[in-house]
Write a structure and sequence with these properties.
6-stranded mixed sheet; binds zinc ion; about 30% helix; about 270 residues
């Protein structure tokens, strides 16, 4: 059994990023005394201190402080890569807003016979059973563990229910021989693409070496699978993305380091005419 665990790249197990809380800007009064308050001022007014304006000013300052502190407080949503909590629907890795599904384009979708359905058992580590209501894209990954098969990577996902090593899974795995295994139903989320788990289908591709280039068989199956998803969900070119495009992660590594190869893959796909 290859050591899938140490090298598997898509785990979401590193400690959460903390949002550094900076001190609020000073809201105090200027230190320099008002000219009117100097002892040298000859004119002394008997007018009582303006209590109400001072109180109003204090109220404004307190309100401003509350607003500033409220915005500095870390989000209530646990950030990505928190081993103590399931991957959140959103994280602090990207500035992009959390996708908020406004409709449901899921339905009963017949899985083609060229896809080998071998769904993971329900478990909180890789197959939580949470609904994927809206599919707005497809995210392509590489497994990050050279030479491993689709079956071995599926076993890795399945075993997370016992190892509790990390949270990870994908809807599909494509082997170096071109075999496609479906691990997660299309209407449920997988744990693969952080902030885009909630509105995308994830595909993990096996690869023979650390360079991460897919075999011809893997690429042919990837094109076939993504073409089918494009047709099923009426997707466009900009909806087919790399993990790198979501979170800046160097995944799939070869197609991040060789953008022309990624564009070449996109050129092979068939998109609906708009
Ligand atoms: Zn990835």
């Amino acid at each position: 059994m290859p050591q899938l665990y140490d090298q598997f790249h898509d785990g979401e197990s590193t400690p959460p990023r903390r949002i550094r809380r900076s001190a609020p800007p000073s809201q105090g009064y200027p230190m320099t005394p008002s000219p009117m308050g100097r002892r040298s001022c000859r004119r002394r007014s008997r007018t009582p201190p303006p209590v109400i304006p001072i109180l109003l000013s204090l109220a404004v300052i307190v309100t401003a402080l509350i607003i500033v502190l409220t915005h500095l407080r870390p989000s209530a949503t646990a950030p990505d890569n928190d081993p103590s909590a399931p991957p959140p629907a959103s994280d602090a890795l990207t500035a992009s807003p959390e996708p908020t599904p406004t409709s449901n384009n899921q339905r009963d979708i017949a899985i083609p016979e060229w896809i080998d359905q071998d769904l993971l058992p329900l478990n909180e580590w890789s197959q939580p059973g949470d609904p994927l209501l809206q599919v707005n894209g497809v995210v392509v990954h590489y497994v990050g563990n050279p030479g491993t098969t689709a079956e071995q990577n599926r076993s890795y996902f399945k075993n997370l229910a016992e190892t509790h090593e990390t949270y990870a899974s994908s809807h599909f795995l494509i082997g170096m021989d071109g075999k496609i295994i479906q691990c997660v139903p299309l209407n449920e989320i997988s744990y693969c693409s952080t902030v885009r788990n909630v509105d995308t289908i994830a595909i993990e591709c096996c690869h023979p070496d650390a360079e991460g280039k897919f075999t011809d068989e893997t690429m042919a199956s990837l094109v076939k699978l993504v073409d089918w998803l494009i047709e099923t969900y009426d997707l466009q070119r900009e909806d087919i993305i790399r993990h790198y495009d979501v979170a800046g992660k160097e995944c799939p590594i070869y197609y991040v380091r060789n953008p022309d190869a990624w564009e070449g893959f996109l050129d092979e796909l068939t998109f609906p005419i708009t």
